[in-house]
Amino acid sequence: MPRHGHRPRWVRARRCPRSARSLPIIGAVALWASLAPRATASPDTSIPPPAHEIHRLIEGDWAAACGQLRAALIAAYSPQACESDSFAAWLDLQRWFDLIARNELDEVARLASRHLRWQPAERRIIVSPTGAAPPAENVEPLSNEMLQQTVRDSRFAESALPAIAPRDFKPADHPVGQRIERRRLEGLLADAELGRELFQALRDEDFPPPIVEFLARAREAAPDLFAQFRRLAVAIAVVYDQPPPPNWPHPQVKPEAVPRVHRTPFEIYGFWIQCQQLGRLFLDVRRLEVEQLTHVVDAPVRESEFMWAQAQVTLPRYRFAEAFDLVRYDLDRLRNRAFIWPGGDYSLRSIHAAGGICVDQAYFAMLAGKAKGLPTLFFSGQGPDGGHAWFGFMKRDDAWLLDCGRERNRGEPVGIALDPQTWQPISDHDLKFLASGFRDTAPYRVSRRHIAVARLFAQIGDRRHQLSALENAIAACPQNPEAWDTVTTLLQAKCSETRAPADREALRKHAADAATQFASETDIRVRYQQMLADLARESGDVAEANRITDAIVRENRGDRSDLSAKAAWQPLKHLLDTGDIQRAYPAYRSTVDRLARTGGGNLYFQIVVPFVLTLQDKGETALAEEALLIARKALRPKPLSPLDTHMAQLRDRLRRPDQ
Fold first, then answer.
1. Distance (Å, rounded) from C-alpha 392 to C-alpha 82?
2. Does residue 379 sit in helix, strand or coil?
3. 531 CB contacts (<8 Å, ≥6 apart)?
4. For 456-479, what is each residue's pLDDT tens digit?
């Protein structure tokens, strides 16, 4: 870690069930009212926040108001209180004050902590832009002291901040709400419907300063329009609080060829309102949910791209899957292994005229759908012959068709898209689960309120009542993965601090209950099964860890080869890390044979490539070539396919390591 005062060099990274019957229920906890500054009169949370109370709090000290509201909510908390819309409105008001009272530079440091790593060997800071995972090796996180020092460095604002925050955002050392006149701020906080929509959508990964500023500006500019388009405004706010990844929409086109343009959230907001008013959209954006709208407004391209699609793509909504085939497939590019877009202009017009391969077809259809007001996603995945791309769209209200063009590849690869709110990967299976309807129910909303109260207990350091509130959240809606995941984070932190067997057992039992609760939700179940395997391995029970890993591989090698391959790699990696090549090599052969029939690109990229490259790094080049040959014989890639091409490139790399 650098010494205090060291001025680092900057470099950007490469792109790149628990039974509900047994859950404890907690009632009012009036004790905690004494832990925060007292309000003039304790708010009555059984009625919605009155205008005069909001005015009084806005005119006072916001941090003190945040503490007063927290104390009142903790004092009034009970499972029954969380069923009240009035209590929920006070929760939203408290969260508003929590946002506006935060220091902007502290929020920048919180954002930067996810993107910055310290590289001790080079004594420099690595900056990973939006959408890119920070490097995992030869780096370490920055301490809070270093983060605070870094975000106050003028060079950070010039060279690094634009990679992770809006280009025109200039942070200052003052509260987030200070950018907004108190009169406008009061109107924002008094808008109860806006509060409901915002805090339903807001996540820990979001960056509040530009969100609050944009919402205040949009509401002030046209209050009547804002009342109709609140959800649109919130969707734009949570998408454009951070810039889209530099390699958007996909890595198979040079960034300079994409017709990207920087537009402010206010300009984007105005454009979509105009499209709605002119009748250019299939759907009424005033009726879509915030999350659906994030998949409409997330394309950072010129308005002319949308306007071209609105005029030229005439497919009706019920036939929009056919948009994939509006782009002629370019067989010559496949024969020539030209997987990167060869043209200089990646506009919809050019793609339509020139033709393309699957990534271009998927991009064209995705963007044309957004132009029509359809929520759409660009998917990519690893099939038997390597990478493939397709698209998905919301065919009917909250009913998604996620496999448009997927069948062109042998098999049905799992699709990975980008969540436009975080720019992190999300699978088509995740999307199906989230669209299943449980989040439209009253129990889910109640569960979210319990989680919000748990955060209040966390702020005062009361883990016991925090955990009880989270258990109430699970009891209210066992299908809510956020509640389970938040308990997981709390128990993991406690285990890390105490290393007590009782705490480890509590975490193990929670993970087992979660795996049971989400037995039919593969991604969530496997995540908790893997946690159980890791816990077993850490405690020295290698046999149990291997048993769980084998179960993951066996249960998922058919439809979810991505999960099977990920699980199967862990014991191989453990053997390689310990230098036990003698046992790792036969285990590798057995794994390849076991997964070859359905593994495809997932087996190759998640197991074969890292195994081969690790052997090369250890000086076992001949063994690495043999491992690659084993994989080629098992996978039998089609000639000229992406998988065949990559295998040939990896073979050449092994034979000519210096080139």
1. 36
2. strand
3. 488, 511
4. 999 999 999 999 999 999 999 999
